[in-house]
Amino acid sequence: MFVANHMTRQPLTVNPETPVHGVLETMACHQIRHLPVVDDTGRLLGLISDRELRMASAGCESTTLRDLHAHDIMVYDPVTVTDDAPLSSALTLLCEHGADALPVVSATDGSVVGIITRHDFLLVMHRLLGLDQEGSCIELALDDPVEDVGIAVEVMRKQGVRLLSAIASCVRDDGDETALYLRVDARNPRPVESALAREGLILLLPENDRLRCPACAPPPSADPPRQPPDLAAPQTAAEPPPAEDRPVT
Question: Are the C-beta atoms of 27 and 56 separated by less than 8 Å?
Fold first, then answer.
């Protein structure tokens, strides 16, 4: 996955001499939060976000604000990413710099060709998890990731369900095993969960949902349940032993 496949192409831009009120009108009209500032050749000079606009509005009188231009409030030399970069590199830059958006520049001539935002990454995650298709989610803890994944795939084949998404990660805080997230096209995941559990795979379920999958429920105790005494029944005294069995005193 590359930035070019998930960025907003040909983003709106402004030049350094654009009045601040023009920047504000552009953002409000197009319902956007970030505007790259470019020169006449399309090369990036800075970035303006709604945060810079709020700071400018809070620190200036209305008459002074009308005198400001884009170059007065923009962030100079913002963090950028090239269009041929892996999507993971862009996400790392966002997290490391606490940015909400990255201007995307061409790997060939350095001109602004797009912009990628945190919202774009949410859309990517939505698709990665298969949430754009109807289905159900199943999560497993993998003792042996390679072998367990093969077992899970074979179970789904036998159950006749289609795999929409599969993501393995180590993001659990309740165990050391790798977690496998599956999304299948079955509306009711219970038959698949039961089949997975019968193959010895560990299902990750909410604590209050353990009994949803019969194969995941703890086995019943071998001892019959102890019945409480019937307090309403009359109590009879124990009969004395026969005379020949009584101890001699």
Answer: no
Please give the backbone phi and psi of residue 3, each rounded to the nearest 5 degrees, phi first: -55, -40
- For residues 212 and 198, give the distance between their C-alpha atoms in angstroms, rounded to a whole number: 14
Whole-angstrom distance, CA of residue 98 vs CA of residue 108: 27
Q: Nearest CA to 199 among 144, 151, 146?
A: 151
Please determine, looking at this structure, whether the domain spanning 132-216 carries the CATH number 3.30.70.260: yes
**Nearest-5° Cα angle at 69, 93 to 32:** 50
**Under 8 Å between Cβ of 231 and 198:** no
Residues 118 and 72: their CA atoms lie apart, in Å, by: 25
What is the DSSP code (8-state) at residue 180?
E
Domains 3-126 and 132-216 share a fold: no
Q: Is 247 exposed, middle or buried (0-12, 13-18, 19+ CB in 10 A)?
A: exposed
Distance, CA of 104 to CA of 9 (rounded, Å): 9
CB 41 within 8 A of CB 110: no
Residue ranges with strand state E in the chain? 8-9, 34-38, 44-49, 75-76, 81-82, 101-105, 112-117, 136-142, 163-169, 178-184, 202-203
17 neighbors 48 (Cβ within 8 angstroms) = no
Residue type, 215: A
Q: What is the CATH T-level fold of the domain 3-126, as seen in this structure?
A: CBS-domain (3.10.580)
Using the 8-state DSSP alphabet, how is residue 210 labeled? G
Domain ranges across the chain:
3-126, 132-216
Low-confidence ranges of the chain (pLDDT < 70): 59, 61-63, 172-175, 207-249
Centre a 10 Å sphere on the Cβ of residue 32 and count the other Cβ atoms it contains.
Answer: 17
